[in-house]
Each structure stands twice: as structure tokens, then as C-alpha cells.
Amino acid sequence: MRNLTIGVFLAFAFATQMVSAQSMGPSYSSNYTVTNLGSVPGLPTYYGGLTFEAGNPNVLLIAGDADSSGGAIYAVNVVRNGNQTITGFSGSASLFATTPYIDGGVAYASDGTLFYTTYSNNTLGQILPGNTSAVVVANLTALGVASSSGSLAFTPDGFPAAGRLLVSSYSSSNLYSLPYSANGNGTYALSNATLLNNLPGGIEGIAFVAAGNPGFSDDSVLISEYTGGQVLAYALDRSGDLTGSSSVFVSGVSGAEGAAVDPVTGDFLFSTYGSTNKVLVVSGFSVVPEPADCSCILGALALGLGYWRNIRQRR
């Protein structure tokens, strides 16, 4: 990742991992546990964004070969224990969709269209249900997003500004709101971005935490800092904007990348990109955020999901 800086970063990341490991921040260590699930079998390095397949919480979608022309989204089955916490992966990752230069953002819109961001050409792609490549690729530079994008996320239902599309610029560490409207064919028209925040650390993965979870009195957002090597927590105000100072949620993370919330447990998953590529899970949540309204996802995807599952021979 990150062109000319990759060699320096990998050397630094290797040295860092020799003397430190990921750990929960002091405000969260008594309630949460971070576990290294290791690498995903069959997933090419480097890792990018991740989410759960619409209608199937036991299948993780995760980008491989990120930030390159061979970038793609892969599907892999997860293994759960008796508490439904993810403990690993079953089988090998299989190709889900080709997404050249995909980076740290992968998320579904309310009707099942899959959005993803790219680096370093600063675009946003849209994949319709049942398709294996983008039908629309938008130029984010033209929409006011500083080059180049890092990630994206839709604000879940029940949160202030529910449904809002957030897009981050890795290079500038800016966080934007990106207005969108349905075209009527499953794709979305995007409007000019509004700058919300300038944050430290190279913004990548974005995920939401519902108020009432231990240590979270307010609805909050977790942000993966790629260059900062950590995941930070920010409270949200009544408008859905970041407010107050951040707190360290997880530290010692080399190449913090994509972020997702397990729809079954509310656990937080994130990927890393660098000298090692792995998936980490943070467990201890008690309140699961509701995704953006997905009432039509199962209907829209019923045929497509079944068809593609058969092709991938999932078990």
C-alpha cells in the first residue's frame, strides 16, 4: 500500500511487531478482548476492506490483493463457537467480485448494492446484486474528496444521521459526507462531498458502536488509523458528527485497514495490511447496531445469492 512508502512502512511494521502486539485501550480493557484470527486461507495479500455478505452472516467478504490492478473481493465462511463469537475460518476464500485497486471500504447500500473504495485512483465502485464487477465507478476527486480515498461506511439505523454515506481520504485523513440518490436501477448518483473532519493517522476502516455497550454511553464510531497503528473511538453528537476527543480502542495494530461489525454478536472485526495480513476480532459487545434498512435485500438477492453460492460451492 501507499506506493513509495510501502518499503519503509513494511520494515517499520516488522520491527514494531517484534516488540508489541495489539491490545485494548485502557478505557476498554476490562470489558473487551481482542483476538487474532490469523490470515484467511486462500486470500491474496494485501488485505483490504471487509463486510458480511448480505443475508448470510456466516460469510465474510474481504478484499485481497488490495491497492493493485488484481484487487478483488473474496468470500470465506466463518466458524463460530457456542457463544456465536467468530473463532476462525472454514475452507478457502473464493472469488466474489473483481474490484481493481480496492482499498479499505466495502459496504452494502440499503437495497443490496455493494459499494467499495479504491486507492490510489480515488474512485467508488458499485456492484449490483448477482454481478461480479462494478457497473458504476465514480471519480471521487471530481466530487471533492481529496485523493486518495481510503474507506466508506453507511450510518446504521438507530444512529443520528442514519443512512448517511461516509467516505474517508487516506492521504489527507479527511472524513466526508457523500450525498447519494437512487437512480431506480439499483445504482446511485453521488453528489459533491461535504468535509466533516480532519483526523490524524490515515483514515481507513469505519464502524459504528451503539450506545449501551460497555464503555460507550453515546453512539460512537470506531476508525482504523493505518499510519497510526491503532483503532480510535469517537462519540457522535445528535447530528451524527464526531464530537469530543478520541480514545484508543485498540493499540499496537500495524496497518489497521478495513472494519466491520458482526451482525450476529456486534463484535468488531478489522483487517490489517502490511508485513502481516490478518483479521482481528474484538468481543465483549452487548448491543448490536441495526444495519441500514435491508428489508428488500433478501428479495433482491434471493436468486443471485443462491446462484453464486452454487458456483463457489460453499458448504
In short:
The protein has 315 residues and is mainly beta. The protein has helices at residues 6-19, 297-312; strands at residues 23-24, 33-38, 50-52, 59-64, 72-80, 86-98, 102-108, 114-118, 123-127, 136-139, 149-154, 165-169, 174-177, 180-182, 188-190, 194-198, 203-209, 220-225, 230-236, 242-251, 256-261, 268-272, 279-283. It has one domain: Neuraminidase, CATH 2.120.10.
Walk me through this protein's architecture.
- The protein is mostly beta strands.
- Helices cover 10% and strands 42% of the residues.
- It has a 5-stranded antiparallel β-sheet with strand order 1-20-19-18-17, with no helix packed on it.
- A hairpin with a 5-residue loop joins β5 and β6.
- The radius of gyration is 18 Å and the shape is globular.
- The N terminus and C terminus are likely disordered.
What is the overall pLDDT average? 89
Structural class, by secondary structure, is: mainly beta
By CATH reckoning, the class would read: Mainly Beta
- What share of residues is helical? under 10%
Q: Could you tell me the radius of gyration in angstroms? A: 18 Å
Flag low-confidence runs.
3-19, 294-315
- Put simply, the count of helices is 2
CATH architecture: 6 Propeller
Strand order of the largest sheet: 1-20-19-18-17
Q: Distance between the terminal alpha carbons, to the nearest Å?
A: 33 Å
The oligomerization state is single chain
| Shape category | globular
CATH fold naming? Neuraminidase
What's the number of domains?
1
Measured by DSSP, the beta-strand proportion falls in 35-45%
What is the string of SSEs from the N terminus onward?
Answer: HEEEEEEEEEEEEEEEEEEEEEEEH
